[in-house]
Amino acid sequence: MRKYIYFILPLMLLFGGCTSKTYIIEDISTLPQNTEAYASNIEAVGIERLKEFDENYNKIYFKPWHIERFQYTKEESMWGFAYEKMDVYGQNYRLLPKEWFEKLKQNSNFEEFDKSRLYGISIRNSDLRVLPTDKPLFFDPQKAGEGYPFDYNQNSSVYLNTPLFISHYSKDRAWVFAQTPFAAGWLDARDIALISDETLQEFQTNDYAIALKDNFPLYLDDGSFIEYIKLGTIFPIKEGNYMIIGKSGEINYIKDDNIVKKPISFDSENIHNVIEELKNEPYGWGGLSGTRDCSSMTRDFFSPFGIYLNRNSSGQIKNGNYIDLENLSSKEKKVAIIKTAEPFKTLLYAKGHIMLYAGHIEDEPVIFHQFWGIKTLNFFNQEGRFIVGEAAFTSLEPGKEISNFDEKSSLLKRIKGMVIVIE
Predict the structure, then answer these.
(1) Which helix (H) or strand (E) holds 102?
(2) Are 396 and 356 in contact (CB under 8 A)?
(3) Cα–Cα distance for residue pair 411/63, rounded to 1 Å
(4) Residue 117 CB contacts under 8 Å (≥ 6 apart), including other chains
(5) 278 by DSSP, 3-state: which?
(6) Is 97 helix (H, G, I), strand (E, B) or coil?
(7) Using alpha carbons only, what angle is made at residue 160 by residues 284 and 297, rounded to the nearest 5 degrees?
(8) Which pLDDT value is given to residue 20?
(9) How far does the chain reach from its first CA to its final CA, in angstroms?
(10) Which of 8, 100, 148, 371 is most buried (most C-beta within 10 Å)?
(11) What pLDDT score was predicted for residue 16?
């Protein structure tokens, strides 16, 4: 009996030791997690330069109110029903039957596609869904990197005050298919308000503010709760007040010290203030559960400075001067990044992941990023995950000290290029 215990115990340590709830990867415990360590000597960018970026930001943000028809085709808009031909699982981790998809397809009402052509706005934070349901879609939850939180029905999150162009309603009128400034998808009809042409014009003041704190409660003058506001939420300014839209499409005016005129100066103090709001936030795939994934974190970091980024990582490589690093060795990548990348002005791109370059310590690049976990290989060469699940400063090889770290899948190996966002 003892010989079996002696055999099993090492296996338990091999497979279970690195996933201890109390273990923190070395990078997070040894690298400075305070922004001042990286941003203290940043070269500032003044307001006048940032206004050029901000003008473009506002143009993109309000684009849904300046179109007369949906900008995606019906076929593009129905792409989510391709999941019907795949093995996908529901919230009970059981395969979803074709009947489930058939009911959604009927309710999606795509025979009415692009017929409503209404202008609207989000009146609370909302989830942009691929299909008109709040139920999740998972690939095989038994595989590493699948299951919660990777709900493939989650397209993105939409903050309060986001302009919308509405294609049509679902048959049960519980959902609207809408175009946002950055993507199209289904929104809960209770989370939007339709607006008149007059309100649309009044709301576009050409003078805008942005939330600089994350998850603070916002109230009307009478004390009525509105929403927990996310950093990066936009508010038009009128006569010193900030504007939001009510349930009936009416304009309400508020004041809050956590909201400031944008763009703000790109300097060490402001970089610190923004990062401190984003740091340690739990990971949220596609904005699931009101938190951020890698690309929503980077876009919200740049938003207060008036710089617009596309929604996903592959789109964000188009938001600046892209430099290809794919064919370089790991050592050459580090040298190129340290030589060329500018701290907090540069993004590093790996397929499916985007990171903010923060600087370097002893010839090791440091990044700030929101990430789920680190790829591992077990005793049988099966892929696994060491879950971190938060935004933090790390090296390009976080978790390399873990005994079953998958070196071939490290961020450093996977990096394809860098994007100089501000030159």
Answers:
(1) helix 98-108
(2) no
(3) 35
(4) 68, 69, 70, 165, 166, 167
(5) helix
(6) coil
(7) 35
(8) 39
(9) 67
(10) 371
(11) 42
3-state secondary structure of 423: coil
Q: pLDDT tens digits for 179-223?
A: 999 999 999 999 999 999 999 999 999 999 999 999 999 999 999
Structure tokens at 282: 């739990």
Contact 158, 210 (CB under 8 A): no
Q: Which long-range contacts (CB under 8 A, 24 or more apart) does 363-367 make?
A: 363/334, 363/338, 364/334, 364/395, 364/396, 365/334, 365/337, 365/338, 365/341, 365/395, 365/396, 366/31, 366/38, 366/393, 366/394, 366/395, 367/393, 367/394, 367/395, 367/396, 367/411
Q: What is the reported pLDDT for 11?
A: 42
Q: How many of the other CB atoms lie within 10 Å of CB of 326?
A: 12
Q: Do 323 and 418 meet the contact criterion of CB atoms below 8 Å apart?
A: yes
Tens of pLDDT, residue by residue over 282-340, are 999 999 999 999 999 999 999 999 999 999 999 999 999 999 999 999 999 999 999 99
Residue 123 near residue 247, CB atoms below 8 Å = yes
Residue 277, token pair as written in the block = 């709001």
Tokens of 92: 């009970």
Neighbouring C-beta atoms of residue 226, cutoff 10 Å: 16
- Give the C-alpha separation, 175 to 15, whole Å: 44
Tokens 């000290």 belong to 401
Distance CA 140, CA 266 (A): 43
- Closest alpha carbon to 318 in 62, 56, 73, 44: 56
Type of residue found at 140: D
Question: What DSSP string describes 327-341?
Answer: TS-HHHHHHHHHHH-
**3-state class of 8 per DSSP?**
helix
Q: Name 417's bridge partners.
A: 324, 349
The Cα diameter of the chain in Å comes to 81
**Best CA proximity match to 175, nearest among 228, 106, 230:** 106
